[in-house]
Write a structure and sequence with these properties.
The structure is a homodimer. Chain A is an alpha/beta fold. The first copy, chain A, folds into 3 domains: 44 residues, 434 Repressor (Amino-terminal Domain) (Orthogonal Bundle), CATH 1.10.260; 110 residues, Rossmann fold (3-Layer(aba) Sandwich); 132 residues, Response regulator (Rossmann fold, 3-Layer(aba) Sandwich). Chain A contains 11 helices and 12 strands. The longest helix of chain A has 16 residues. The first copy, chain A, is elongated. Chain A binds a DNA duplex through helix 2 and helix 4.
Chain lengths: 310, 310
DNA sequence: CTCATCTATTTAAACGTTTAAATAGAGTAT
DNA sequence: ATACTCTATTTAAACGTTTAAATAGATGAG
């Protein structure tokens, strides 16, 4: 690997001059600039990150604290990471993965993305899921989704809408409930706690159990909202869309109505926000993104004809 | 952040001694060792990666070339990355994400994990999916899976077994076909090309199309193997397990028989292999891992009673 | 012609480590 | 006592950059 010294030697100038050309941090005459650039091109020189960082005290790296396994199922993490990587790379940064439970190595990255664990409150960081109050975050609004779901069902004439929530151990689960309550209130429909079931955990058989609990309670309901990918898989297995159904994520079960989470936009926005923060710019403390409802072919499509569900 | 100088000063020794204690690269008397360790503990000192790397010419980082989106669906990449991160972290390494199509920055990592793109043949790297011939790799054996699937069906008395392959654009797709052919040959069953359908692409509606093509061809079949997660989702939607069905991945569609890919083991093994290679140890050029068949509750469980399918 | 001013360039220190080489100090054999 | 060996420790160079400070060279004013 060619170093800056090699470039300097080949161009017949000092290393400082090369550095000045490459970062244009000092005026350099046209003639020497050309000599330097020619040498750079000839040697295929690329500055050595480690060396540069040592001096600049910047790692040009963004750390990601990988969430626990049980969070993963509610988030297309692979797509998320791919998009975040793209965003970081195009800004000259790299993404570094770190298990959330490892002890903090704060100096490995300039900033951190967190899905659920505080690294060290001192370090620059940004959240992607249900942050502690003080931390900046870019979030997808589950309350909005829940509200849209309820509105869609009530617009189609339903009045008793069941809700299978996420278990409260999942960060942000409360917001589904919040949106549900809010939409009911706005629609002037009385809240009936018997229509809400919280599953024990987030696995597919918990969805089955929750669904059966709802069915066994002899509470009649004419529409159902299921929060959570895994849960919904279970519910769909048992229910076969007997009542109009809206699930939290549209991506796995086709035919069922559900929400498209703006994963790419989410990752992109978050990375750029973090980079702005690192640049010292003031950033909005909270940025909310809205999922969009995708009506599937199964269930109640005919009931919704003429309803603008974009 | 405390530096090694601070530690040296506090302990009343030279920086070299501190370094020798921390890496035990030179003998140090018990007394000074204790002084140093006390100082380290008191200051909460952790060596600065950049500085260390600069000297050692090691980044202590493993790069991951993130695969294209259409590969992702056949691989639980989130779990894979989490496990790889754990393995790397416990060896003192970090994982660095890089888009496969970005121009190579080889010096960012000591070694590279590749899912489908060659970074630079010179760089130390290891493959996780269908490598070029010369590259070392740790792979999950789809041929083994296909063979197990065929065996399972023939053991249950089936003779005409349909195969919906992966599109050949997917790396490694040929191995499904290979295993299928091999198992048929061993079972003494004639190969009928009419029972094999290659879908146009890897999306769920391609599965639907492939299934319908097979059904329309009026070829009777008594068992079906579907390679690919997305494809299987489509097939299951249409078929509802009319014939005994085995799909490539067991994780999303429960009730259906399918394979459990040893994702955690896979990631772990691959990372350790790469680290061995970086240490200069000779490593096996190919390591094969076998997926295991999980028989679901739907379909032909009763036909398999008494058959040892572990 | 001298001095000041400005610009382009170089020198050298610094960042936080590791490590080869030098040194100090203790013990041992002569 | 002297020289030698061995061990524990320090000194200083090196890794690849950036950048403050120094310097050289040109231009212009007096």
């Amino acid at each position: 690997m060619a170093t800056i010294k090699d470039v300097a030697q080949l161009a017949g100038v000092s290393v400082a001059t090369v550095s000045y050309v490459l970062n244009d941090s000092m005026p350099v005459s046209e003639a020497t600039r050309n000599k330097v650039l020619a040498a750079v091109a000839k040697l295929g020189y690329q500055p050595h990150r480690q060396g540069r960082n040592l001096q600049r005290q910047r790692t040009l790296t963004i750390g990601v604290l990988l969430p626990q396994a049980n969070l993963l199922c509610e988030l297309d993490l692979a797509t998320w990471l791919l998009e975040a990587t793209n965003a970081a790379t195009s800004a000259g940064y790299s993404l570094l993965l770190q298990p959330a439970d490892s002890q903090a190595r704060g100096d490995l990255a300039d900033g951190w993305i967190s899905f659920g664990t505080v690294l060290d409150p001192q370090l620059p960081q940004i959240w992607a899921l249900a942050p502690p109050f003080e931390q900046p975050a870019v979030l997808c609004d589950a309350a909005f989704a829940a509200q849209r779901a309820v509105e869609t069902l009530t617009h189609a004439g339903m009045q008793r809408i069941g809700l299978i929530t996420l278990p409260r151990s999942i960060p942000g689960s409360a917001r589904w409930y919040l949106g549900y309550r809010r939409a009911l209130r706005r629609a002037g429909i009385a809240f009936d706690p018997a229509l809400v079931v919280e599953p024990a955990d987030n696995r597919f058989h918990d969805g089955v159990a929750a669904y059966e609990a709802l069915a066994a309670s002899e509470n009649d309901y004419d529409g159902l909202i299921v929060c959570g990918n895994q849960l919904a898989t279970g519910v769909v297995m048992v229910d076969h869309a007997k009542v109009p159904l809206i699930v939290s994520h549209s991506n796995t079960q086709r035919g069922i109505s559900g929400f498209r989470w703006p994963t790419e936009l989410w990752a992109h926005t978050l990375v750029r926000k973090l980079l702005q923060q690192l640049d010292g710019s003031a950033i909005a403390h909270r940025t909310w993104l809205n999922p969009s409802l995708v009506i599937g072919s199964l269930g109640f499509k005919e009931d919704l004809d003429g309803f603008n569900y974009v």
